[in-house]
Amino acid sequence: MLAEKHPPASSELDAFEQDVIHGLSQQQKTLPCRWLYDDRGSQLFERITQLPEYYPTRTETAILKNCVSDLAQHIGPQAALIEYGAGASVKTQILLKHLTHLSAYVPIDVSGDFLEDTAQRLQQTFSHLNIQPVIADFTSPFTLPALGNSRSKVGFFPGSTIGNLSDDEIHSFLTAAHQHLGDNRQFILGFDLHKSADILIPAYNDAAGVTACFNLNLLDRINRELNANFSTGGFKHDARWNENESRIEMHLVSIAKQRITIAGKTIEFEKGESIHTENSRKFCLDSIKTLCHNANWAMRKVWMDSDNLFAVALMEP
Ligand code: AVJ
Questions:
Q1: How far is residue 22's CA from residue 5's CA, in Å, rounded to a whole number?
Q2: Residue owning the nearest CA to atom 9 of ligand 1
């Protein structure tokens, strides 16, 4: 078992406990997917991105490599790049390397430890770049640091993280981004495309079982942090394609009728009953255009791989 660098802050623990008790008291038991990403969950996700079945990361990276010089033509000088969610990936470095004349890079993430490491590492490679990490949950309101010499701000939201959000959440997020990116705003969005279940299901239920570990780690995390007694052997990972909602759903299915104690409360599971742990939406171009349009963003340009698996779009007001 891996220790956290710092124990979770008590406010985080309270929020976690509330979400768990609330989510597991619903008719369809559900847990918000953000809790999948503790230290161990983040490490498992990194391993997912390298699996042969998991096409999104390598496909988006290839698209970015191919489009970045074209993209650079659309970005003015002295722009600040604002990245929502975990940065420091290969994808970020492609942009930092090819979007010359950037005035600043602002990675935003909830994990302070992670951000500090990232900022220090990137500063060594990009020694002249003004790197200003912000510790925040980007789905809640936050303030950007003063970026005095920047003439414009460019949002960057890769990885199809947008696919975790509901229509309402996307609307709030894109509207907030619209506001804090200010005048001359632009936004680079990576999103996964609708495709055959034959490709999708293995991508979320890989042969090596890494995605299963990633999903089941949530139960371990509840045991560790909330003093619960889940046995991970009592549940199995399930990835379901919901065509109506155009999304992959991750579930944890109880293999037997059982009773679990969490922070002093009892939760009952029927045999076959599931906890819905994540949605990963797959978009068609029109659906994403509409979502963006509703938040006053227009799609200026879009790049895709030759198999139309994934897309990167540049949006402007
Ligand atoms: C990080 C949300 C983009 O939905 O593909 C990968 C998370 N879950 N395998 C995704 C995930 C299971 C991933 N996102």
A1: 28
A2: 204
State if residue 204 touches ligand 1 by the CB under 6 angstroms criterion: yes
Q: Which atom of ligand 1 is nearest to the CA of 279?
A: 4
Higher pLDDT among residues 266 and 1, named by residue: 266
Residue nearest to atom 1 of ligand 1 (CA): 161
Q: pTM to 2 decimals?
A: 0.94
> What's the 46 CA to ligand 1 centre distance in angstroms?
10
268: part of which helix (H) or strand (E)? Answer: strand 265-269
Looking at beta carbons, which pairs linking 137-143 to residues 24 or more positions away fall under 8 Å?
A: 137/110, 138/84, 138/85, 138/108, 138/173, 139/165, 139/169, 139/172, 139/173, 141/176, 142/108, 142/180, 143/180
Check if 211 has its Cβ closer than 6 Å to any atom of ligand 1.
Answer: yes
Interface TM-score (ipTM) > 0.95: yes
> What pLDDT, on a 0 to 100 scale, did the predictor assign at position 4?
44
Name residue, tokens 């299901």.
Answer: 201
From 280, 281, 282, 310, give the residue whose CB has the most ligand 1 atoms within 8 Å, as the site to mutate: 280
Mean pLDDT of the chain: 93
Q: Return d(Cα 158, Cα 170) in angstroms, integer.
A: 14
Element (H, E) at 56: helix 55-74
